[in-house]
């Protein structure tokens, strides 16, 4: 299911993962801050209603303002999307993905050290 997320749905999920739960208005405010232009409230509402139908978010209707929370975890979503990218873009090779990622963005010395430590942990397994 997570491999079929739209960019807008993923953006809303990222907000909900950070906030844990939020109203449509709260999500809309964050979306508007993150973009150069105002995001319409009704657009955000419709997207979140669709996400509820797709069982991506839960909706608490016990109060006047509905509260939404994510039903899929950030980690599971990252794993699923990354697996799809590795399979479709990098011919199933995680090494090609890592090398491309390191080539395309400059890593800080701290990040390089973290990568080294992680590779050492993998080798010890």
From TrEMBL:
An individual GO BP term: negative regulation of DNA-templated transcription
Top-level taxon of the source organism: Bacteria
Residues making up the signal peptide according to the UniProt record: none
Keywords for this protein: DNA-binding, Transcription, Transcription regulation
MF terms (GO), sorted A to Z: DNA binding
UniProt xrefs under InterPro entries: BlaI_family, WH-like_DNA-bd_sf, WH_DNA-bd_sf
Recorded family membership: Belongs to the BlaI transcriptional regulatory family.
Protein name per Swiss-Prot or TrEMBL: Putative transcriptional regulator
